[in-house]
């Protein structure tokens, strides 16, 4: 195998469009990647996606692995025609780790049926900072033991279906506040603190054989000698992950065009430094120019420096074994396994078990008797992190409006200002108000809106569509959590609101008072 081919195998790249184009063919021919990551931009239907994957496999004429971020919940790439799962926090709200296992198996079965054999999940971050903007409902909880229990069960389900899993985001994104898609977060903990918290879920899945770990762009000032993103730190990868935690699998970078690394290094330099620090798979999701630039730079460096060549050989040996193991032959792809009634029923039941009635002080649930002096106030869901796809509005708000057409209905943007919040409720007051929020505790305008509702209406029901911490806003006596916006979440949320089913979920994280 040539040097060019070896370097190409180390790349995990994204492509544009829902069908293979001449531009895509040229990119595949130039880089010869070992991995392709798929996004919603590549998906229209299971039939279309099967054709795209088959066409790519036919074009490259060799083994290649397809990867995807199929965490469930707010990070779901396969939707229309597929079985949609609740996210991590919703699953843990059911109180049953077996539900994480069932979810992993169903997602794994449907991915592999399409030739996708590498899931960039589960998230094993311990979300012990409720102000965290990038993790939240993507995490199974706020304690290491809880996260370890559920993430291991999810991983086991994927493994049994022949799909590789990825523990992310090492060394841990749960305590940070900055979004690594935008800037380099700081995790200000000592090594002992990391060992007692962040590293426990990683160690658990590592000891149970997880195939890959994704390295984030977090900086550890109390551990690292240099101020670097973890994805280009030898201390983090070789000393902490490999030597201290004993990981022997594939190290994959979080996207090297994210702000957490791109604010400090150009993509070609970041790729080079990541490889030299111990990275195995270079992840560049967007813009073919970035991929080609990084590839050409590594090739040039390898031709000039034998040490770079040695690192390429090191990574290639691991990566090639991984590709050989998880390449899915076209003959194994089977659309009949996708979106089956059995799969849909199982995940619908799990989702129903997750809906959490946190407070019902005024017995507002089930909903009834909403009239002209009442108000329905609904957020337009926001793409709060770049890992998410674009969001549609909540179908729950529309359903409530249809059931109570005489009730005043208003919508607001997630990032509305405090002035806009005041103006929205100008001259409004009454008996009951229902407000659907999205991380209101993180946005002053949303929080102000909720507080204004409490002052102006006798009873207020808060429906938290995303992080449950909105239920802690001071003065809220009635709240319910759905942990996400997907159709199964919203369908079962509506059933609870209308009294068709009981809410049996238990919030898996403590809810602080939000003033």
Structural overview:
With 515 residues, the chain is an alpha/beta fold. It is 40% helix and 13% strand. It is built from 18 helices and 14 strands. The chain has helices spanning 3-9, 22-31, 46-60, 88-93, 97-112, 144-160, 191-196, 199-207, 234-244, 259-262, 267-277, 288-304, 306-326, 341-354, 395-403, 418-424, 444-456, 487-497; strands at 11-14, 35-38, 65-68, 116-119, 166-170, 212-215, 250-253, 282-284, 356-360, 375-380, 408-413, 430-437, 457-464, 478-481. The strands form 3 sheets. It has a 6-stranded mixed beta sheet with strand order 9-14-13-12-10-11, sandwiched between helices. A 5-stranded parallel beta sheet has the order 4-3-2-1-8. Helix 1 (3-9) packs across helix 12. The termini are far apart. 56% of the residues are buried. The mean pLDDT is 94.
Low-confidence stretches: none
Average pLDDT over all residues: 94
Gross geometry: globular
The value of Rg in angstroms is: 23 Å
* Beta-strand proportion: 5-15%
Main beta sheet: strand number and arrangement? 6 strands, mixed
- Give the helix tally: 18
Side by side, the strands of the main sheet go 9-14-13-12-10-11
Helix content: 25-40%
How many β-strands, per DSSP? 14
Q: Report, as a whole number of angstroms, the end-to-end distance.
A: 62 Å
Going by helix content, strand content and strand pairing, the class is alpha/beta
Describe the secondary-structure layout:
Layout: H1 3-9, E1 11-14, H2 22-31, E2 35-38, H3 46-60, E3 65-68, H4 88-93, H5 97-112, E4 116-119, H6 144-160, E5 166-170, H7 191-196, H8 199-207, E6 212-215, H9 234-244, E7 250-253, H10 259-262, H11 267-277, E8 282-284, H12 288-304, H13 306-326, H14 341-354, E9 356-360, E10 375-380, H15 395-403, E11 408-413, H16 418-424, E12 430-437, H17 444-456, E13 457-464, E14 478-481, H18 487-497
Helix pairs in contact: 1-12, 1-13, 5-6, 5-14, 6-8, 11-12, 12-13, 14-18, 15-18, 16-17
């Amino acid at each position: 195998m040539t040097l060019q081919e070896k370097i190409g195998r180390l790349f995990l790249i994204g492509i544009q469009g829902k069908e293979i184009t001449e531009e895509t063919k040229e990119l595949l021919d130039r880089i010869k990647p070992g991995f392709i990551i798929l996004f919603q931009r590549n998906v229209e239907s299971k039939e279309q996606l099967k054709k795209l994957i088959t066409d790519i496999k036919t074009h490259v004429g060799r083994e290649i692995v397809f990867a995807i971020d199929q965490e469930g919940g707010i990070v779901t790439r396969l939707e229309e025609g597929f079985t949609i799962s609740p996210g991590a926090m919703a699953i843990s709200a059911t109180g049953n780790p077996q539900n994480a296992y069932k979810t992993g198996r169903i997602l794994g079965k449907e991915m592999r049926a399409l030739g996708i054999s590498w899931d960039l999940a589960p998230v094993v971050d311990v979300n012990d900072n409720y102000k965290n903007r990038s993790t939240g409902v993507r995490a199974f909880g706020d304690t290491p033991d809880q996260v370890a229990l559920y993430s291991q069960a999810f991983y086991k389900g994927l493994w049994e279906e022949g799909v590789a899993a990825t523990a992310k985001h090492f060394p841990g994104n749960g305590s940070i506040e900055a979004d690594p898609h935008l800037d380099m977060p700081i995790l200000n903990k000592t090594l002992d603190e990391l060992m007692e918290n962040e590293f426990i879920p990683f160690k658990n899945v590592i000891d149970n054989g997880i195939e890959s770990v994704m390295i984030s762009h977090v900086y550890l000032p109390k551990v690292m000698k240099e101020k670097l993103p973890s994805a280009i730190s030898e201390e983090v990868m070789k000393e902490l992950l490999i030597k201290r935690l004993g990981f022997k699998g594939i190290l994959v970078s979080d996207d090297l065009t994210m702000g957490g690394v791109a604010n400090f290094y150009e993509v070609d330099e970041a790729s080079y430094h990541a490889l030299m620090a111990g990275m195995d798979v270079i992840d560049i999701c967007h813009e073919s120019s970035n991929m080609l630039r990084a590839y050409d730079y590594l090739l040039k460096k390898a031709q000039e420096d034998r040490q770079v060549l040695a690192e390429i050989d090191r990574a290639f040996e691991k990566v090639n074994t991984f590709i050989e193991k998880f390449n899915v032959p076209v003959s194994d792809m089977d659309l009949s396994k996708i979106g089956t009634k059995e799969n849909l029923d199982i995940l619908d039941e799990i989702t129903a078990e997750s809906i959490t009635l946190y407070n019902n002080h005024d017995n507002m649930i089930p909903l009834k008797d909403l009239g002209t002096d009442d108000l329905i106030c609904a957020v337009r869901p926001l793409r709060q992190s770049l890992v998410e796809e674009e969001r549609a509005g909540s179908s729950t708000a529309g359903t409530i409006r249809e059931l109570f057409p005489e009730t005043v209905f208003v919508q607001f943007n997630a990032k509305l200002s405090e002035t806009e919040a005041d103006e929205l409720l100008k001259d409004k007051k009454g008996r009951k108000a229902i407000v659907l929020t999205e991380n209101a505790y993180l946005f002053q305008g949303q929080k102000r809106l909720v507080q204004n509702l409490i002052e102006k209406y006798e009873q207020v029901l808060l429906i938290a569509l995303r992080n449950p911490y909105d239920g802690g806003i001071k003065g809220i006596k009635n709240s319910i959590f759905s942990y996400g916006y997907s159709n199964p979440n919203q369908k079962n949320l509506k059933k609870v609101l209308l009294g068709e089913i009981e809410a049996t979920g238990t919030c898996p994280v403590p809810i602080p008072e939000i003033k």
